[in-house]
Amino acid sequence: xxxxxxRDRFVHERLPGAADLPTFRFDRPELQFAPQLNLVHELxxxxxxxxxxxxVMLRSPGVSVTYAQAAARVDAxxxxxxxxxxxxxxxxxxxxxxxxxxxxxxxxxxxxxGMVAVATMPxxxxxxxxxxxxxxxxxxxxCDARLMAEMELAKAQSPGLQTVIAFNQxxxxxxxxxxxxxxxxxxxxxxxxxxxxxxLAFTSGTTGKPxxxxxxxxxxxxxxxxxxxxxxxxxxxxxxxxxxxxxxxxGLGGMLIFPMWAGASVYFPDIPYTPQAMAxxxxxxxxxxxxxxxxxxxxxxxxxxxxxxxxxxxxxxxCVSAGEALPDATRQLWKDASGIEMLDGIGATExxxxxxxxxxxAVRRGAIGTVVPGYVAKVVDDAGVEVALGTVGKLxxxxxxxxxxxxxxxxxxxxxxxxxxxGDAFIQDADGYFFYQARTDDMIxxxxxxxxxxxxxxxxxxxxxxxxxxxIGRPDSERGMVVKAFCVLRDGYTPGAALVKDLxxxxxxxxAPYKYPREIEFLAALPRTETGKLQRFKLKQI
Length: 542
Description:
Layout: H1 39-49, E1 56-60, E2 63-66, H2 67-84, E3 92-96, H3 101-112, E4 116-120, H4 126-136, E5 140-144, H5 148-156, E6 163-167, H6 176-180, E7 197-202, E8 212-216, H7 217-224, H8 227-232, E9 239-242, H9 249-262, E10 265-267, H10 275-285, E11 289-292, H11 294-311, E12 318-321, H12 328-338, E13 343-347, E14 354-357, E15 370-371, E16 376-380, E17 393-398, H13 411-414, E18 415-416, E19 419-420, E20 424-428, E21 434-439, E22 444-446, E23 449-451, H14 453-461, E24 466-476, E25 480-489, H15 497-510, E26 519-522, H16 536-539
Parallel strand pairs: 1-10, 3-4, 3-5, 5-6, 9-10, 9-11, 11-12, 12-13, 25-26
Antiparallel strand pairs: 1-2, 7-8, 13-14, 14-15, 16-17, 17-20, 18-19, 20-21, 22-23, 24-25
Helix pairs in contact: 1-2, 2-3, 4-5, 10-11, 11-12
C-alpha cells in the first residue's frame, strides 16, 4: 500500500468507517490499477506519450487547445496553486463556473496538484454556496469572472475561505490567467495514492438536501474503464458536446474525463444552450457525441428534424441520455428526428457515472439496459433479499466505484451490507435487462396497486397536447394515494376540464386503467434542477 500524499487530511478523516463502506470489485483485467496514480497524469500527461499532443482537446468558437497546450496550461495553473497561493495537497479548492475551457483547465490543475476539486453549479446563490463551503471547508475559490457577485457574498460569510481568484478574465492583472502566464516550468503531478481524494461531488438536489460524495483518483479512472470502454466506445476522432455542467458528475465524465480517456475533443459553446441552439451547433461544431437529459432531447427534436430536412444528417453518431428516466415516447421522438437510437443509462453522483446501460445495438424497448461490465446489480426487497424476476424491487449495485459520503449519517441509508442502494425501483427480466419504475420514494401505492410515476408520464407524453409532465402520488384518505399529474402544454392547447378528460382517457387506453391520473394540474413550467432533473419534492409541495 502506497501512503497517502495528501498533507491536509480533512477529507480522509471524515470518510465513512470500514463497516459502512461498500464492497469494491476490481475483478476485470482493465480494473487493475497501480497503488500510486494521479488522475490528470494518467489522462493528460500520458496523452502526450500516446502521440495525441497535437490533437485538439478543447474547443470553443474560434479557439482550439491541443492536448500539449492543455498540459502546459494545467502545469502553469498548478504552479499558481502551489507557489503563489501556498496550497498543499489535500486542500479543497472550490470551482465556480459554467462549462468553458478555463473551467476545465482549472479543475484539472487542482487535481494534478493533489488538491480536492469542489465544483459547483453556476446558478447557485450565495446561501447555497455557503452550505457547500461549510461542508467542504475550501481554502481557495476559483470563480468565473461573470459569476463573482454571489461568490463574493458567500466569501463574506465564510471566514475559512481565504482567497477568491477570477478566471475567464485574461486582461485583469490578478486573474488566474494572468498569474498563470508568469509560470512556464513543467509541474510534476503530485504522487497521489490511488485512494487519495480527487474531488467532492455535491448531489444535484432532487431531494432538496445535497450531500457530498467523495471520489478518489482510482474511482474516476475505474469509471473510464467501465461504461466508456464497453458502452460508449468513443474514439480519438470524436467531438463531444452537451449540456450537463462540469460540476455534475454526468457532465464531468461525459464532457471532460471520458473524452480525455479516449483522446477525443470537447466543444464548449460561448452561448447558453437552448434546444434550438444545440440543434444548430451540432452542425457548426461537427459534434459526433451528444450528452443531455431526456427533456432537452424532447425539446430539441423538432428543431433537429427541421434542420435535417434542410441540411441532411448532422455528423452526430452517439446520443447519450441520463440524469433522469428516459420515457420511450422521448426515445422514439428523438429517433424519428435524428435517425439515431439513443444510448440510455442510469448512474449516480455517489457512483460517479453510469452503471446500467445498453449500447444502441442492444436496446430493448422500455428498458434502460443491462449492468455495465465491471459492475454487478440485482433487484432486492427491503431486507436485501433478491426478488423474483419480473418483480418490482430496489436496485442494489457493486463495482469499482461506490458511495463514500463526506461526514454524513445518510451513508447508512445508501450502503447496506456492502451494496450500494441508489434509491431506484426496478424490474429485471430473464435476459438481465433492467426496467426503471421510479425512485423508491416516488413509488405510488393507490388502492393496493403499486405503480411508478415514469410509466404514467410516458403515457401522457404520447398525447399531442403534452410538452412536459411530472407525476406524483398525493395522499388520499380513501385510496392511500391518488395519481396526480402536472402538465405543461404545447402551443395551441387550452387547459380545461375537457382536456383533463381527454388526457385521462388517453392514459386509460395506453396502460392499465387504474394508473390514470385522477387529478391533472396545468403549469407553465416544471421545477427542475440545473442539470434538468425533475424535482418531484417541489411538485408535492404545490
